[in-house]
């Protein structure tokens, strides 16, 4: 069967002498794996279109698990991302997150648009950590792990948020804060941004200025939330941590 899709390369691996297997995240069909024959060769017609983060139109034939690429036209190469270590590291994290959390051939048009917009935002020098958090929250919502931020998860009152319980999956009011000794205290700024991450379309992201201490708190909360409710080990996240640790 022949497919014509618009997709983003979220994984690329060598296959045999001169070939690559690329995983495309497509708008209509979700994840699809395709063999790009000769893509490793210097003068390959698929060399650029098989590179990580490339967005393009892909035509391929598929009869089994893997398709065979017949034609590709690049829409957005995202050169600036691949040329910058920090940008590439964050884009790799979003790509691996997508690859690991989605099953094959699960069409997700909205999430596709969010990933494409996230890569565009990375290329445009917008805040890398905020882009990560926006996209992470979209993945939480998709997977059914949306944190409860409208009311206390214990008493269900619409009270002032005091802390967030990662284990209970949402905010705690001051009266119920002792129900989880591990709850992380919330600041008004962090609470506002967490709610914004749930509601905001990445395509509407402008330049945003967040205090370093607020960004650190957001990172602590969302890392703990991911590890508790999703629990995937991501190489790209480990690499980001190493870059932070050594000040790269």
From TrEMBL:
Q: Which keywords describe this protein according to UniProt?
A: DNA damage, DNA recombination, DNA repair
> Is ATP-binding a UniProt keyword of this protein?
no
Q: Which Gene3D superfamilies match?
A: Nucleic acid-binding proteins, Recombination protein O, C-terminal domain
Q: Which GO terms describe its biological process?
A: DNA recombination; double-strand break repair
Cellular component terms (Gene Ontology) = bacterial nucleoid
Question: A Pfam family matched by this chain, by name?
Answer: RecO_N
Give all residue intervals belonging to the DNA replication/recombination mediator RecO N-terminal domain: 1-78
Entry keyword DNA repair = yes
**Family indicated by similarity:** Belongs to the RecO family.
PANTHER family registered for this protein in UniProt: DNA REPAIR PROTEIN RECO
Q: What does this protein do?
A: Involved in DNA repair and RecF pathway recombination.
HAMAP family (alphabetical): RecO
- The protein's name is DNA repair protein RecO
Taxonomic lineage per UniProt?
Bacteria, Bacillati, Bacillota, Bacilli, Bacillales
What gene does the UniProt entry assign to this protein? recO
């Amino acid at each position: 069967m022949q497919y014509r899709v618009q997709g983003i390369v979220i994984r690329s691996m060598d296959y045999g002498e001169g070939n690559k297997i690329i995983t495309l995240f497509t708008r209509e069909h979700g994840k699809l794996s395709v063999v790009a024959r000769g893509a490793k060769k210097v003068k390959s017609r698929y060399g650029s279109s098989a590179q990580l983060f490339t967005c393009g139109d892909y035509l391929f034939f598929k009869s089994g698990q893997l398709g065979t690429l017949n034609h590709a036209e690049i829409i957005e190469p995202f050169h600036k991302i691949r040329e910058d270590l920090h940008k590439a590291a964050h884009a790799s994290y979003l790509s691996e997150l997508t690859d690991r959390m989605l099953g094959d051939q699960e069409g997700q048009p909205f999430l596709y648009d969010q990933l494409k917009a996230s890569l565009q935002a990375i290329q445009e020098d917008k805040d890398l950590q905020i882009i990560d958090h926006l996209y992470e929250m979209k993945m939480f919502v998709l997977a059914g792990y949306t944190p409860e931020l409208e009311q206390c998860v214990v008493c269900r009152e619409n009270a002032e948020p005091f802390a967030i319980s990662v284990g209970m999956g949402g905010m705690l009011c001051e009266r119920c804060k002792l129900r989880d000794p591990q709850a992380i205290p919330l600041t008004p700024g962090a609470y506002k941004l967490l709610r914004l991450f749930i509601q905001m379309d990445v395509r509407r992201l402008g330049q945003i200025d967040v205090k370093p201490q607020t960004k650190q708190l957001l990172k602590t909360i969302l890392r703990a939330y991911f590890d508790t409710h999703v629990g995937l080990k991501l190489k790209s996240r480990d690499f980001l941590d190493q870059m932070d640790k050594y000040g790269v």
